[in-house]
Structure formats: C-alpha cells, structure tokens
Amino acid sequence: MKNRLRVLRAEKEITQAQLADETGVSRQTINAIEKGKFDPSLPLAFKIARLFNMSIEEIFEDED
Amino acid sequence: MKNRLRVLRAEKEITQAQLADETGVSRQTINAIEKGKFDPSLPLAFKIARLFNMSIEEIFEDED
DNA sequence: ACTATTTGTAAATAAAACTTGACATACTTA
DNA sequence: TAAGTATGTCAAGTTTTATTTACAAATAGT
C-alpha cells in the first residue's frame, strides 16, 4: 500500500507531530504509515482523507 | 462505520460466501462487516470497492 | 416435513495497528 | 557551538480488532 501522505503534508506545511495530533494518533504512527511500514485502520484513513479534503483513493493506493 | 454492503451484494445477487471467496476472507468476516461488528482492513476495503467498481467512500461511511 | 442453502453469532485465535520511550541524525538559527 | 525542531527508527510492549472456527437459527425449495 503506497500513499502520498508525505507530499500532501509538505504542501500543507504541517509536521508529522501536527498531523498526528489532528488525527489523534502518535507521531510515530504517522511516520510509520508514511514510510509504508503498515496501513492505517479504515477509520484513521477516513480521518486523514477528510483532513486533506480528499478521497481515500486519492491518498492511498492499493498495489495488487 | 456504516456500509452499503448488504444492498450492493443483493443487487449483484451474490451470497456472503461468494463475496468472501472473491475477496479472500471467510464468510463470517463478510457477515460481521455487513452487520457493522467491525471495519475491514484498508486492503480489504480496497478489494471490496474494486469488486463493486466503487470508491471506498461510496460503500463505507464514517460516522463522526 | 425434510434437506439444502444462506445467514447469524459466540468464542477463540491471529494479526496488526498503535503506543511509549529512547536514541540518532539532519537542519536550522541564535 | 549550542540549542531547538523535525524526522527516522527500533525494540518492546499493549491493546485493539480483524479474521477464523464451530455451531445455531432461519429461510427457501421439493
């Protein structure tokens, strides 16, 4: 599962810690997701998408 | 997290077991998701969405 | 009524998300 | 040079929750 989180965050000019704060998870969780270490839960994916005013598919890409 | 799985499946006229089969999970998992007992993993959500030619947001609705 | 098929659910397991804490690196800037 | 901020990572632990197995209930068909 790839994602465009890194660039989106850069565009918005917010830090991992801020994103973590706004989504209610730890900074390391955001980092891990960005680095593709694991996928967010569906609810968290929704929260992130909402924060960027985007659809989940616009942010996350299933590689299959 | 609500979802329209039940009706979509009805429209497609497939059984829980068939949907389970095509998404690679157990029949009970599909049932549980339909009944809202828990949310699918993000990869599974993608698989389901792809199967119905829909976006995740068109199938699942985050209630917050 | 009987059988087959579909659905519901409890209980247990497996898996994975997420946390905490710590430390290291890089970049800035004062 | 020192201090502050942002990111990377890792180990280890917790805890949530997705998923399975097994069994019960319901529904449909003959």
From TrEMBL, chains A, B:
<protein>
    <submittedName>
        <fullName>Helix-turn-helix transcriptional regulator</fullName>
    </submittedName>
</protein>
<dbReference type="InterPro" id="IPR010982">
    <property type="entry name" value="Lambda_DNA-bd_dom_sf"/>
</dbReference>
<dbReference type="InterPro" id="IPR001387">
    <property type="entry name" value="Cro/C1-type_HTH"/>
</dbReference>
<dbReference type="Pfam" id="PF01381">
    <property type="entry name" value="HTH_3"/>
</dbReference>
<keyword id="KW-0238">DNA-binding</keyword>
<feature type="domain" description="HTH cro/C1-type">
    <location>
        <begin position="5"/>
        <end position="59"/>
    </location>
</feature>
